[in-house]
Every structure is written in structure tokens, then in C-alpha cells.
Amino acid sequence: MTSPTTAAPLKVFVSYSHRDESHKDDLVVFLKALQNLGKVSIWQDRAIDAGSEWNAEILQALDSADIILLLITARFIGSDFCFSKEMNRALMHHEQQTARVMPIIMTPCAWQQMPFAKLQVLPTDGKPVTEWNSLDAGLDNVIQGITRVVNKLHSSPSPPDDGWGTPPTAATATVAADAGPAASPASAVTPAMDAASQRSPQGTMQTRLALFRLLSNLPGPTFDAIVYALNVPLSLLPPAAAAQGQRVPALLNWAESPVGCGLDELEAVVDAVINP
Fold first, then answer.
1. pTM, rounded to two decimals
2. What are 58-93's pLDDT values in tens digits?
3. 36-40: which pairs have CB atoms within 8 A and are 24 or more residues apart?
4. Whole-angstrom Cα distance, residue 140 to residue 147?
5. Which of 111, 114, 116, 144 is the most exposed place for a label (fewest CB within 10 A)?
6. What is the spatial distance between Cα 168 and Cα 12, in angstroms, rounded to a whole number?
7. Residue 164: inside a domain
8. DSSP β-bridge partners for residue 40
């Protein structure tokens, strides 16, 4: 008999290489305790129904997850889909604070230089699960770490809704207004906005404001052309019908995320589109 919690179960997405199916199955067995308590619901790609478009379903499930578990092995790191699509997309959600990403070191591998290495990994001290005295001991340590995060997320008050339908705050509007009149497409991007690596924090802020003013005043089709040229995941931007004041911050946040293009590349593409 389960003991349900008052909060809705957190959605847990398990990202793994299919060559590590046995490791995934072992982890899911241990996760079942949290699922039986009503604290989490577990999604893995084996849940995809026959005849479904598996790529779209995987990315949709990942985008809606509260917690994303990365089962790290040499095979995961070597998988183009796991590494380039699932991991990078997961890190973007983590940067935007829309999901908690938890790398789990399952087997010995060269993970310390990977993009996810900046996050707190499991098990303790990054000791691979398979190198513990027993597999169960390693997985139990992992589940303890996951449980702490799950309990913290369940006990934390829900943040205020700042979804796509929420207009920019008055403070944001004031900052944009104080920055001066909107720049014209021909003049907003200048050589002075190059070399982000040499910018001071104030210079980065000025660049963001200049791009915000410029992008906010572009026609919808021109903005869409920039999004297309940058190959921004459409699920991370408000729909085309949304106000430009909602789409522009989302694009800037993506550009500055770990998997985004960066402000320099964004500037270059904007300039190429509006000044062909």
C-alpha cells in the first residue's frame, strides 16, 4: 500500500545509453521506493508506445521533467544522442532553473572534463557505482542523494508563475527605458559590441540591453529568421503568437546558457539577418 504525498509527484527523466540498459534497470529498481511513496514518477524511453515518434517523445519528456538523471559511463559520453542532445538540453534546463540535473557516475570513465562536471555528482565523491563494495551499496548511496533533493523540492514553496504569459516586470521595463531609445536595425550592432571574453560585467549588461532593444523592435518574421539561423530549440521559446517582450528574454537567456551560442554569435547572426 502506498503512502501518497500531498504534492504531485516530481517527474524524473532517466537519460542513459541503451548499451547500459542493465545499469538503468538496477537504478530504476531502487527508485521505485520513491515512486511507491508518491514522491516521483519515473520516465525512461522504454515507456514509448509502438508507432510513436521516439525522438519527439524523448525530448518532450525531458523538457517537462523536474529532475533529470544522467547515467554516466564511457558509452553515454560516446553516444551522440545522449551527449549532444539529451545532456546538452538537460544542462540548458538546469541553467534556466527549470529542472535539477543529477549526473550519476555508474562506471569508471573520463568524466571530469565533461560539461556536467561542474554539477554535484553521485555517488559520494564521484566514486563509480560499480566500484563500491557491492552494487547495492553504490546504488543506495545514489538514492540517498536523490531522496534529499526530492524531499527538498517537495518542501520548497512553489515559485511564482513566470511563464510565457507573464509580461516583463515593471523593473525590467524601467531598465530598458532608462537605457535610451530603441536602436535602429542598421546601427544597434557595432564593432564595440565584439569580444565578449574581454567585456567587463558592465559591458556585458550594455550588450544585453542593446540586443534587448534591437530584438524587441524587429518584425516577427525577422526575429523568426534569427531563431531559425541559430537553430534554437523551439520548445524553449514562447510561440510566435506571444509578445516580443516575452520571446526576446527567452532568446537572450538561451544564448548565455552553457549550450547557447553566446552573445557574440547572437550579435553576428542578428547583423547578418538585418544587414544582408
1. 0.58
2. 778 888 889 999 999 999 999 888 887 788 888 888
3. 36/2, 37/2, 37/3, 37/4, 37/5, 38/2, 38/3, 38/4, 38/5, 38/9, 39/5, 39/9, 39/10, 39/150, 39/151, 39/154, 40/9, 40/10, 40/11, 40/12, 40/67, 40/150
4. 10
5. 144
6. 30
7. no
8. 10
